[in-house]
Amino acid sequence: MEYIDAIKRPFSDFKKLLLGWVFSVIPFVNLIAFGYQLECARKPGKTLPDWKNYGQLFIKGLLSVVIWMIYSIPVMLVFFFIAGDALLTLANLSEFNPETFLSEMIQSVGTALIIVMILGILVAYIGYYAIVSYAAKYRFKDAFDFSKIFKGAFTKEYFFGWIVGGLYSMILGFVGSLIPFIGPGIAGFISGVAFLTILGDVYKKFN
Q: Are 10 and 37 in contact (CB under 8 A)?
């Protein structure tokens, strides 16, 4: 699939798009929109899938959040470990010196941010493939089939798809942030449909 087709997909049916916008801006209910985006990954194409089985969409969206949270555990653990180590180092200073304190803080926080950022990018890269793997057959265990996930995630097709989809999501996210309250949800739905369509199409080529 051409990237441009995936980007145009959310706008192929305004009624379906509007419904997605409505669900996306309502807290908790937006899990239905997440479930719908999974359908876009499971059935990549130029047109939007039908809205149906809202209860199932909600559950699927909830499970996708759970999968994402599980994949995020290493990032949180590393962050808290480094932060705790930094605080312990500062607590063990023999005497309080503003220059020493500031130097230690900058060094500790800077190191933590770099490590967490690198790990976060890696988790996001692999995590999206895990989400798409789950969406293929809606089997929770497929999101943790690491041999299959690592094999598919480290291909040039997935890499370029992830980059294009990620950049598009960042741009829309920035635009959406300029619109109070509803902007982020609307931008998130549009970019989510396009992004997961791209990745879903890549996934089908290797499975």
A: no
